[in-house]
Fold this sequence. Notes:
Elements: H1 2-15, E1 35-44, H2 57-70, E2 74-84, H3 96-109, E3 113-116, H4 123-133, E4 137-138, H5 140-151, H6 155-177, H7 201-224, E5 235-241, H8 247-255, E6 273-278, E7 284-289, H9 299-303, H10 306-314, E8 317-323, H11 329-342, H12 347-352, E9 354-359, E10 376-377, H13 386-400, E11 404-411, H14 415-422, E12 431-433, E13 436-443, H15 445-454, E14 459-462, E15 465-467
Bound molecules: guanosine-5'-triphosphate and magnesium ion (MG).
Magnesium ion binds at residues 247-248, 268-269, 289.
Amino acid sequence: MFILRLSRQTVLSFRNLSIGSSEVAAPSAFANDRWSVLVVHPKVRWGSGSASVLKQADRQLEEAVALVDNLPNMNAVDSLIMPVDYNTKRKAVWASGNLEKLIARREAARATALMVNVDALSPSQQQELYRIFEVPIFDRYNIVLATFKQFAKTEEARIQIAIAEIPYIKHRIHALSSKRLHSRPDILHIDSHYSDIDGDLNEILRKREQDLRKELKDVTRKNVGQLGVRNSSDAVVAVVGYTNSGKTSLVKKLTGAASLTPKDQLFATLDTTRHLAKLPSGRSAVFTDTIGFLSDLPMHLIAAFEATLAHVKSADVIIHLRDISNPDWKAQEEDVLATLKSIGVTDYVLNERIISVDNKIDKESAFPTSESNNSVRISCKTGDGMHELIDVINDKVTMVTKCKTIRLRLDARSPVIEWLYHNELVVIEPTIDGNYLIFDVVMNESEIGRFRKKFAHLKKKNSQSVSL
Ligand SMILES: Nc1nc2c(ncn2[C@@H]2O[C@H](COP(=O)(O)OP(=O)(O)OP(=O)(O)O)[C@@H](O)[C@H]2O)c(=O)[nH]1
Ligand SMILES: [Mg+2]
């Protein structure tokens, strides 16, 4: 069982707390087992059983199947929507009649595992469903965590995944050790060796989390030094959106980054990458491509990606990309905004610094303009709307970074000229006016401040020009 093996590795590493992060969550650890999965979406007949009640059940089922098929060692052999009365919290999720139908369906499909499409099953639900179906039971948390483990490439992402797993292990170990549950650890996807460990497990897990957080801090610090960001005064434009909305495609289109490969796959991107582009104003901006969001996930899973998402909080501008061809774009938008809030993006930023962009307008299923007002409509595939988007980004960046165009009338020997070139502020070559050169430069607040301080002695002709 793949989660079991990974957890064993994690738990074994508890004995040696100095274990390196490279040993955490190695993706190959679960590559050997293959699962034929019956995917079931419990549709709540009435009341709110799901965080995203807006979503259509068939779309939710489709997404769950895609999540399962995304994993190389899993194959969704059958899928169905099975209604539940009022919520998904009852011990076996469904009442007996529906359970019988599900057992028959599992047998007919020869499924070797069941995926219940809820954010997280409780330990007692997982145990009860195992007792009934006699196959491993997965929830969205299990599948997404396995996906993260499979596709994470960098140390930063791997450490964050290891941190994300700790509350899950803690919760389950607690349920087992408090004897509330007479279950086998492997049924709950935690390692059966946990009981071999001497000492207070909570304490060991706490220490482990502390060590991982420290490691993460070091790795993050090291990465910040290697970002390839040209200049700290470059504006940061974070591209966020639901998984598979086209974030990587957009960053590639805007920056021409050859290293980016868009994929028709959920969570293709797990690590943040940064790419530089020049805006029409001549200012450079760093576009960041980052992990996509997904609905109905235990919050700590995304929260664990805090280091990866930290740049979003401090970004000058956020592009919220929506896949407008997806019938659930509205619900996905709400999920993304809720996640942004939960990682600490303020209402001010959400109101003032966000650009809503509708992608995939080339697709037949794209919703018309009237349904998604106040947004820029584009297609990363055909390039439609890209010029308009670049202008909108340009204006927003100029506004947020308080950039101003300043006309400078300078003698050819003026020391200002060297300073302008040194700071890469000359985008358009100067024009000549008699003995003077006329520069139109765009400077942000801090550059204007530095300029004023350095050249305070220059004779000022008027507020927007100096001459020497
Ligand atoms: N038809 C069409 N397909 C698009 C468009 N933009 C992106 N795609 C496709 O959508 C899929 C996902 O694109 P990505 O750019 O990888 O999406 P993402 O948001 O980075 O996805 P994750 O990193 O997995 O969250 C790929 O198959 C793209 O080729 C578009 O405008 N039109
Ligand atoms: Mg991506």
